[in-house]
Amino acid sequence: MPAHLTDSGVARLHDAMAQRVARRELPGLVTMVACGDAVHVDPIGTVAFDSDAPMRRDTLFRIASLTKPIVAAATMLLVEEGRIRLDDPVDRLLPELADRRVLRRIDGPTDDTVPANRSISVDDLLTLRLGFGQITEPEFNPPYPIVHAADSLDLTLGAPDPRTPHAPDEWMRLFGSLPLMDQPGERWRYNVGTLVLGVLVARAGGATLGDVLRDRLFGPLGMVDTGFETTPEDAARMPTQYMSDQATGKLAAQTLTAADTWTSPPAFPSGSGGLLSTIDDLHAFARMLRDGGRHHGQQILSAASVEAMTTNHLSDDQISSAGLLLGNQGWGYGMAVVTRPTDNGLTPGQYGWSGGYGTTWFNDPSRDLIAIALTQTSDFLWNGGLDEFDRLAVGAVEPGDPDRDAT
Description:
Layout: E1 4-5, H1 7-22, E2 28-35, E3 38-45, E4 61-62, H2 67-80, E5 101-103, E6 113-115, H3 122-126, H4 145-152, H5 168-175, H6 192-205, H7 209-221, H8 232-235, E7 242-244, E8 251-253, E9 276-277, H9 279-290, E10 294-295, E11 298-299, H10 303-309, H11 316-320, E12 330-331, E13 336-337, E14 351-355, E15 359-364, E16 369-374, H12 385-395, E17 397-398, H13 402-406
């Protein structure tokens, strides 16, 4: 018998998530576990603490960093079209990043630099090793001159809110005025690589990032609700975003980007965290990767591209120096890759990522499992909710018998 979902495992997952809603850790969420052709979707709770409107299967979520693997897939499609190569210097499409200078010391003055050893490559952007990103040690974004310089430009290099006011060309011009933190290819640093990648994908595709994604991925995959903006009717149904207030420790609604902001295209379509989506749209994307790039009999992405996306590209030293954001995991293209067993039951070969608004997804090839949880409560990622979801989603699958299946 092949691997399959069990009623008891699905029930345990539902009960645990429902208990978190009952304890008011979050107002609601939508989960999915899929194994083989079996798909179980479970909307729980409401879209806000002060609302009776239920979470629904088609509820539209800000997916934050789940944008990253989608943009990585679009990049691989452009590679397959011959528009770019993984080892290409980005200078041709991003001349703003030619002739890079690199800080002599990451905590030093921004004018104390040395020449870059080489150009930034497309692969560097995909693997977040371009030489610039979030600093996690000795603290998160410490008061170094490079941090202040980046903040002063309103580039929104970390959390997606408040949004940057700059259009892509101006954003690139401003970002190009900063030195790199590290030599290209040297170290994994979070988030900035896929912001730059989004601009590169748009220029390589000859259209806006949203149009490139829609033409090459969303249309072929039937991801009809995914994009950088939505209709006023759908925006009105978006869940409220919550995160704990640092001063009080209590969950508070986050209002930096109101729901109606999503009814028009952003000035800068963020390749790191700017998309809206639904659980079924994300399932279509995850299923395509699970099936080696195929969707309903059509080869959307080559199997070789899927393998490149879902294989760890970091050295052990790069993983160990990545800090809390990556943990023990490796990094493929736009997503984490599990390289060793974890306490919550994840096994080598699993891949996926989470988004800072409280969204998460992983594929487990060994169990034929796709698992997705969508909330708009950031605390879900660090109050035990994420670990519990991962563990119980894995536990919802009864493994198959390889010997029996082969006969």
